């Protein structure tokens, strides 16, 4: 039988890795099994591993290649680039047999005939050890785009073969224990999707930073996707909640606009060229919400088909407007990682912030910065120093292992640099615009990736603490231990902690740090007097024709992210509780906030919600919560009203929420009230007739019981939650709540700081205790001890 050197995708399946490599086996698998499900996979064919081996043997270069690779200095890799160059020249100077060339020509002609025109194709490398669950080989070998014509395809296949001996690929095989002669290369020749005149990107069926599995993460840029893979741009980023995909009206829980400053397009003379993205285009998302949701559905189907988390490349054809999946491989970092052993880093001191960007990896490190412009400068980087450069493409791989951390001007979370950093277990900050200017070569700097999705670079050496957390086998008490959270960027990570949900999510952090605009300034945008504030609002709300929608959308995304992270456990969201002086600090806030002598006990909490001065702002908050619960399907969200002074006030607020689409009891909605004012305790039984439960705010309750302004440093020593009067208040409200069948919990530091306070609450039969993340494990220990004495 004649040697079979090419195989069409429709004859390939996932078990054919030994024949056509991991990438091409996966493409064949998807073409045959996922196309029928409505997932578009571009057609194509693959050259076989046998074709590669025959080529090497027929040209008599196998012995020379082995001799060269055996001579690599595996200690310092001093001759790696030279060995790579010599080996690639052997491959490029050899010739394909007539039989092999004829089979490539025939396969290409057949593909063109099938689609009725001479095709532009992508020619991609696929190694027989590639795309396995234990190693990604991401970016080690070459791909060639915009290839047309039989002879050009043949030449591109040969260049793919040569890329098996890239310096980075040689070192990768050595580092991962793959024997060079046992790895063969297949070339995939695939119908080119015209994403150069549209967009493309990468998606994961697991959060690539935390390993959280209930989310699909999609990134996108304009033009060809190599800009994302190479880290040349900061892409758009979208998060979708898996259980809502295809079921709920909205499944997108987060959208982040990337700069997308470069667009990779076809060159007139063949090949590709990187161009500047017009400013107007940079300000728009690469995908519509409908397209994001379509890709999310496809990602879930692909993951279900393979039975494991996947790393997937997508592209959109600018001519037809159709989406395609052009590649899928197993996710290789978090799918095999132990999620229950974690290190908790806490920054104590920090110098001036030099730059910030997308954090990859969690932790803090310090070192001397080395600002390098090319992999050729690798000898300038010493072990334990911080690599700072524009982008880190695969040519940097042999260097990156030496770095304590990697900082790049460009790139997103799914860039090649980010993927390799995760594989190495290294810290990276990608998309840190201006890093190579703000950080000077030789500077001592600190890289801080402890604060969520944003990483920071500080001048000098900071102080920090590290605590190793072994979350395996922690015994949970019967009383519910819950978390106090504010920052959605940390939600996925904290979801792995032992918990029974979120007892308090504060909206103030999101409003202050993400939204930044006073809600009433959005409601009354057209009539604002402050022109500077108006200009700032215009810039922040650029993609929102309705300024109010900006507030609703950003707040819904933040709450949705936390609710998704802990789903189906309950997440109790406290409606906004800024004081008037804090509201004044928001953009446009001066026009809507009166000056108060004592804002701590002034116009705050429930009293704002029905007052004409803020009523329409509260409506925006309610619309965001309605969207999270009724459209995203995150009905684990419960709502809580702060600083509700009177029974009448409670009734007004609950009634108003019903008017705004949040009717108590509808769609299982529960509304709680904070117990933080003496009137809440004294009239607890009446409050229990209006609300479903209570959460004791121990700080305000202590303040108002003892008559202490907790903002005053002079009398701060008198502030004591263990005071007998405060404990009497807590006991009274717990007893009253239980008498009426209402749930009640407490949010505060005391149960973790004082074992006897935890015991006091447990003995009262409190339903839950909520802790800040850094106090959770100590709090659980105190709770468990109290229950078992």
CATH superfamily of the largest domain: Phosphoenolpyruvate-binding domains
Number of helices, where a helix is a run of at least 4 consecutive DSSP H or I residues: 29
What is Rg? 30 Å
Query: Which architecture name of the largest domain does CATH use?
Result: Alpha-Beta Barrel
Reading side by side through the largest sheet, how are the strands ordered?
23-24-25-26-27-28-29-30
Helicity, as a percent range: 25-40%
Structural class: alpha/beta
What shape does the CA trace take?
elongated
Mean pLDDT: 91
Distance N terminus to C terminus?
79 Å
The biggest beta sheet reads: 8 strands, parallel, barrel
Q: Which CATH class of the largest domain applies here?
A: Alpha Beta
CATH topology of the largest domain: TIM Barrel
Total number of strands? 30
Which band does the percent of strand residues land in?
15-25%
Uncertain residue segments: none
Number of structural domains? 5
What can you see in these coordinates?
The radius of gyration is 30 Å and the shape is elongated. Helix 14 links the parallel strand 23 and strand 24. Helix content is 35%, strand content 22%. It has five domains: 6-192, Dna Ligase, domain 1 (2-Layer Sandwich); 196-335, D-amino Acid Aminotransferase, Chain A, domain 1 (2-Layer Sandwich); 338-469, Glucose Oxidase, domain 1 (3-Layer(bba) Sandwich), CATH 3.50.30.10; 481-669, TIM Barrel (Alpha-Beta Barrel), CATH 3.20.20.60; 672-789, TIM Barrel (Alpha-Beta Barrel). The protein is of the alpha/beta class. The chain has 29 helices and 30 strands. The longest helix is centred in the last third of the chain and has 20 residues, at 547-566. The strands form six sheets. An eight-stranded parallel barrel has the order 23-24-25-26-27-28-29-30, surrounded by seven helices. Helix 5 (98-115) crosses helix 6, helix 15 (508-515) crosses helix 18 (547-566) and helix 18 (547-566) packs across helix 21 (615-631).
């Amino acid at each position: 039988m004649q040697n079979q050197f090419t195989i069409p995708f429709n004859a390939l399946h996932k078990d054919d890795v030994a024949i056509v490599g991991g990438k091409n086996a996966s493409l064949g698998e998807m073409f045959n099994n996922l196309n029928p499900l409505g997932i578009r996979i571009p057609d194509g064919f693959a050259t076989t591993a046998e074709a590669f081996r025959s080529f090497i043997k027929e040209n008599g270069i196998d012995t020379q290649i082995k001799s060269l690779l055996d001579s690599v200095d595996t200690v310092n890799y001093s001759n790696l680039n030279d060995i790579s160059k010599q080996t690639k020249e052997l491959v490029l100077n050899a010739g394909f047999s007539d039989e092999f060339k004829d089979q490539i020509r025939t396969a290409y002609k057949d593909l063109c005939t099938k689609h009725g025109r001479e095709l532009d194709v992508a020619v991609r490398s696929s190694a027989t050890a590639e795309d396995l669950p234990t190693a990604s080989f991401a970016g080690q070998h070459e791909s060639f785009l915009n290839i047309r014509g039989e002879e050009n395809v043949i030449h591109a296949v040969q260049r793919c073969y040569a890329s098996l001996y890239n310096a980075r690929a040689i070192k990768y095989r050595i580092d991962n224990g793959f024997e060079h002669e046992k790895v063969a290369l297949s070339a995939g020749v695939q119908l080119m999707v015209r994403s150069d005149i549209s967009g493309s990107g990468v998606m994961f069926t697991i959060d690539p930073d935390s390993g959280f599995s209930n989310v699909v993460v999609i990134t996108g840029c304009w033009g060809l996707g190599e800009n994302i893979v190479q880290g040349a741009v900061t892409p758009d980023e979208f998060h979708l909640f898996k259980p809502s995909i295809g079921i709920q009206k909205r499944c997108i829980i987060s959208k982040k606009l990337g700069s997308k400053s470069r667009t990779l397009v076809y060159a007139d003379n063949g090949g590709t060229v990187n161009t500047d993205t017009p400013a107007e285009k940079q300000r728009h998302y690469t995908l519509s919400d409908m397209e994001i949701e379509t890709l999310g559905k496809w990602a879930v189907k692909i993951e279900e088909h393979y039975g494991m988390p996947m790393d997937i490349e997508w592209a959109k054809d600018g001519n037809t407007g159709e989406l395609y999946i052009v590649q899928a491989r197993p996710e290789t970092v978090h799918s095999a990682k132990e999620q229950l052993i974690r290190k908790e880093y806490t920054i104590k001191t920090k110098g001036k912030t030099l730059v910030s960007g997308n954090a990859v990896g969690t932790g803090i490190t310090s070192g001397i910065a080395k600002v390098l412009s090319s992999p050729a400068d690798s000898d300038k980087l010493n072990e334990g120093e911080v690599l700072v450069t524009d982008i880190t493409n695969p040519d940097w791989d042999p260097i990156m292992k030496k770095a304590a951390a990697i900082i790049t001007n460009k790139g997103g979370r799914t860039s090649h640099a980010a993927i390799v950093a995760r594989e190495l277990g290294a810290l990276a900050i990608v998309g840190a615009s201006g890093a190579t200017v703000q950080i000077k070569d030789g500077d001592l700097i600190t890289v801080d990736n402890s604060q969520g999705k944003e990483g920071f670079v500080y001048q000098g050496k900071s102080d920090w603490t590290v605590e190793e957390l072994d979350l395996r086998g922690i015994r949970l008490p019967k009383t519910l231990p819950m978390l106090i959270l504010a920052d959605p960027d940390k939600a996925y990570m904290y979801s792995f902690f032992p918990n029974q949900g979120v007892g308090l999510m504060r909206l103030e952090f999101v409003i202050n740090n993400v939204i930044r605009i006073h809600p009433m300034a959005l409601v009354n945008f057209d009539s604002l007097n402050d022109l500077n504030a108006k200009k700032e609002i215009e810039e922040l709300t650029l993609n929102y024709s309705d300024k109010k929608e900006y507030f609703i959308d950003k707040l819904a995304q933040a709450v949705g992210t936390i609710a998704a992270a802990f789903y189906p456990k309950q997440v109790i969201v406290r409606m906004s509780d800024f004081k008037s002086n804090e509201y004044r600090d928001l953009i446009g806030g001066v026009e809507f906030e009166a000056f108060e002598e004592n804002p701590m006990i002034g116009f705050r909490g429930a009293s704002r919600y029905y007052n004409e001065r803020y009523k329409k702002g509260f409506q925006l908050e309610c619309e965001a919560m309605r969207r999270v619960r009724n459209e995203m399907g995150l009905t684990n969200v419960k709502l809580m009203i702060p600083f509700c002074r009177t029974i009448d006030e409670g009734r007004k607020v609950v009634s108003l929420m019903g008017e705004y689409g949040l009717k108590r009891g509808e769609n299982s909605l529960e509304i709680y009230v904070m117990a933080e004012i003496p009137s809440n305790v004294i009239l607890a039984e009446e409050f229990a007739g209006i609300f479903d439960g209570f959460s004791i705010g121990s700080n305000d309750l202590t303040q108002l019981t003892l008559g202490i302004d907790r903002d005053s440093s002079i009398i701060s020593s008198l502030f004591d939650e263990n005071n007998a009067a405060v404990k009497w208040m807590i006991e009274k409200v717990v007893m009253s709540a239980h008498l009426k069948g209402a749930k009640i919990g407490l949010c505060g530091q005391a149960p973790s700081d004082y074992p006897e306070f935890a015991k006091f609450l447990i003995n009262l039969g409190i339903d839950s205790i909520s802790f800040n993340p850094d106090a959770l494990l100590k709090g659980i220990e105190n709770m468990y001890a109290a229950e078992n004495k």
